[in-house]
Amino acid sequence: MGCVGSKQPVDDGAQPQSGTGSPPVAQGQVKNDGASVGKAELTTTTDVAQVDDGDLDDDDEPQKQAALGKKGLGILRKNFCRTCAAQQQSAKNDASSQNDARSIKRVLVVIDVQDGYDSEFIASLPADVGGSLGFIQDEHAVKASYELGSRALITAFEPGSEPKISYNKGWNKGLPGEAMDTVAARAVTEIQSGEYELIVFTTDYLERSGAEELGVFPLDKTPWSDPTKPVALVGYDKYLTIAAGCPGVDISRRIREKLPDVTSANGKEGTANGTPALYLRKQVDDAFDEDREASERTGGAAWLDDVDVDDDGLPRADAQTLLQQLSARGYGPAEGTQLSFVGVVTNRCVASSLLHAATLGYRTRCLMGGCRAANAAAHEKGLAMIREKGGDGVEMVE
């Protein structure tokens, strides 16, 4: 997460000020007097379903990773897919040796199937709502520019002279409705099957506007490796609907319409079609993340940084990892627990969470028909990653 202990400036109409920290990165379009000065690929208006997920979202660009700690759009790009298959197979074998099929405890894990990633939901919002299709496609005045590294104020623009940026990055328009419908339908079918003892829903849930972490938009072509690169700082609620207090944080309406007891709005505990359910808020690809933050806002204590955050999307003293929460409910790896995964997107959050679970000793299943990504190529890339890194430790199920 970003540098803590000081508030960072935000380009949403507030007076410019200097600041410090390293907020997550988000790419955008930059225009001044009608001329584009951003990256060429960012001027496309092609629907996200028709482009590769790397075309509009290059948060994995090496220079940017080095400059910003791999953070983008508020979700930490910590991909557990780099872990070798041998480790996962060994962990899986260790757990399997203690249990047989008759003692398996089955848990369904639904990864990030929420309104904020649904293109049809995003398009349905009024154009004056931050993160809506109309809002992100509009042009917005930049009040001030800041240095990428220090967050020192470079220029406070005079009214009428401000450069304009679009918040449309392609991927933040959401996944195609057909893809979301497919994933939601599979999740509902699995939940209604009665085969699972527990349902886990994860949702991406970023810091509330005015907190310390902000999106970074480039204002010229200066390399990301240059700490003096001029950038605009923008609150998550301006270009996404998955920050605290925003309309896209709840479980997908496509699921909630079929299963009325499903919602993340009532806290961590709930039900799904009468089955016990656990809801986990996160700000990282990997739902099993366990990194901690020790800072001014945590009083110097080491609190979990990116999972189990509070209502404002901030770290809290009594937060628990997903492993801790599952184990406390009797669904640890040693109890013969099998985790079956559905969700979005296959090549990021699904793959990262599943493979981390495998290294922890969980039996894992990827329900391929219940996973989707920005397009078919990205989905297949994710499945190939799971097969390669998971090896025999992951069961691939259609």
Question: What would you say about this model in short?
Answer:
This protein has helices at 53-56, 62-68, 85-96, 119-124, 133-137, 177-192, 236-239, 253-256, 322-328, 346-359, 376-390; strands spanning 29-32, 35-36, 71-72, 75-76, 105-111, 139-141, 144-147, 153-156, 164-166, 198-204, 215-218, 230-234, 269-272, 275-282, 292-294, 302-304, 337-344, 363-372, 394-397. By secondary structure, the chain is α/β, with parallel strands linked by helices. The model is unreliable at 1-10, 13-59, 69-73, 82-86, 88-93 and 95-99 (pLDDT under 50).
Tell me what you see in this structure.
The protein starts with 28 loop residues before the first strand and ends with a strand. It is an alpha/beta fold and 398 residues long. Helix 3 crosses helix 10 (346-359) and helix 10 (346-359) packs parallel to helix 11. A seven-stranded mixed beta sheet has the order 13-14-10-5-17-18-19. A four-stranded antiparallel beta sheet has the order 2-1-9-6. The relative contact order is 0.19. Helix content is 24%, strand content 22%. The protein contains eleven helices and 19 strands.
Helix count from the secondary structure assignment: 11
Number of strands: 19
Using the CA coordinates, give the radius of gyration.
21 Å
Structural class: alpha/beta
**How is the biggest beta sheet arranged?**
7 strands, mixed
Instruction: Name the poorly predicted regions.
Output: 1-10, 13-59, 69-73, 82-86, 88-93, 95-99
Query: What percent strand?
Result: 15-25%
Shape: globular
Q: First CA to last CA: what distance?
A: 36 Å
The H/E string reads EEHHEEHEHHEEEEHEEEHHEEEEHEHEHE
The averaged pLDDT comes out at 82
